[in-house]
C-alpha cells in the first residue's frame, strides 16, 4: 500500500486541505499520514480564522511517522508561514525521505482568503528545489515567478522548472475559454497536456489539494510522472 505523508493545513469544513488529501489518497488505495501545519476555521462561505502550528511540532509529526511507518511520497500543501516552510524543507533533507515530493503552492483559497504571505512564498523556493513536481495554478505560477501576471505561462513554467530543477504542472482552471488545459513542463518545455471541457460549477473548493494528493499517490505507487 503506497504510504503518502501529507504536510498541509486542516479545513474544518472538510472540503479542502488535510481532509480532502486523506480522502483522495484513501480512495486511490494509499495510506495517508499527516503533519498538520495550521488549523483553519472555515466553511462553504470562506476562511474565518487561521492558527499556525509551531514549526517544531510540524517537524515532529513528519519525523515520527517517517521513522516508524516509512514514506513513499510526500505531498505539501498549505504551510502556515515561512518558519514552517523552512522547517519542513530542513526535515526533508534529513535522509528519512527518499521519496517523490509533490508541492502544491497553496497561496489563495478559492474563496479569496490569503493563505501565504510574501515571506512564505519566498520560503517555498527551497521546497520547490526538493520537489519532484510543483502544481501551481496560473496566479500561483505568476507569484512564484515574482510577477503580477504572466504574458507567456509556458515560458515562465519552463524557466521555473529549469531554475528549480523540477517538473511543473500548470493548472489551467483560471484561464478563460470553454476548455481547461493542464500542461506539464520540465526544463526543456512542455512534455504532456490534458484537456477537458470546462465544468460550469461553483463547487471548486479543494480541487487543487485533491489533484496534488492523487498525483502523490500515483508516484508513491511507482507510476511514471506523465501517467
Can you put this structure into words, describing what you see?
This protein has 227 residues and is α/β, with parallel strands linked by helices. The protein has one domain (3-220): 3-Layer(aba) Sandwich (UDP-N-acetylmuramoyl-L-alanine:D-glutamate ligase), CATH 3.40.1190. 36% of the residues lie in helices and 26% in strands. The protein has 7 helices and 9 strands, in the order βαββαβαβαβααβββα. It has helices at residues 17-27, 55-68, 82-92, 118-130, 138-144, 153-164, 207-220; strands spanning 3-11, 31-43, 46-52, 73-76, 101-103, 133-134, 167-170, 179-186, 189-197. It has a 9-stranded mixed β-sheet with strand order 3-2-1-4-5-6-7-8-9, with helices on both faces. α2 (55-68) packs parallel to α3.
* CATH topology description: UDP-N-acetylmuramoyl-L-alanine:D-glutamate ligase
Class based on secondary structure composition and strand pairing:
alpha/beta
- The helix count comes to 7
**Main beta sheet strand tally, sense and closure:** 9 strands, mixed
Number of domains: 1
Name the poorly predicted regions.
none
Write the CATH architecture name. 3-Layer(aba) Sandwich
CATH class: Alpha Beta
Strands in their spatial order, largest beta sheet: 3-2-1-4-5-6-7-8-9
What's the β-strand tally? 9
Amino acid at each position: 500500500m503506497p504510504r503518502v505523508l501529507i504536510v498541509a493545513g486542516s479545513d474544518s469544513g472538510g472540503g479542502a486541505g488535510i481532509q480532502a488529501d486523506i480522502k483522495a489518497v484513501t480512495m486511490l488505495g494509499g495510506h495517508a499520514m499527516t503533519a498538520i501545519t495550521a488549523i483553519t476555521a472555515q466553511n462553504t462561505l470562506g476562511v474565518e480564522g487561521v492558527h499556525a502550528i509551531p514549526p517544531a511540532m510540524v517537524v515532529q509529526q513528519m519525523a515520527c511517522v517517517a521513522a516508524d511507518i516509512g514514506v513513499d511520497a510526500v505531498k505539501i500543501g498549505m504551510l502556515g508561514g515561512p518558519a514552517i516552510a523552512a522547517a519542513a524543507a530542513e526535515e526533508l533533507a534529513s535522509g528519512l525521505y527518499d521519496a517523490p515530493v509533490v508541492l502544491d503552492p497553496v497561496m489563495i483559497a478559492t474563496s479569496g482568503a490569503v493563505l501565504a504571505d510574501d515571506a512564505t512564498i519566498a520560503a517555498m523556493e527551497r521546497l520547490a528545489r526538493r520537489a519532484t513536481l510543483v502544481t501551481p495554478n496560473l496566479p500561483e505560477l505568476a507569484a512564484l515567478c515574482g510577477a503580477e501576471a504572466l504574458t507567456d505561462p509556458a515560458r515562465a513554467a519552463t524557466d521555473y522548472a529549469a531554475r528549480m530543477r523540477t517538473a511543473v504542472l500548470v493548472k489551467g482552471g483560471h484561464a478563460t475559454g470553454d476548455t481547461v488545459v493542464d500542461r506539464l513542463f520540465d526544463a526543456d518545455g512542455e512534455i504532456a497536456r490534458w484537456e477537458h471541457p470546462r465544468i460550469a460549477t461553483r463547487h471548486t473548493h479543494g480541487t487543487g489539494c485533491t489533484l496534488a494528493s492523487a498525483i502523490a499517490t500515483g508516484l508513491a505507487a511507482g507510476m511514471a510522472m506523465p501517467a
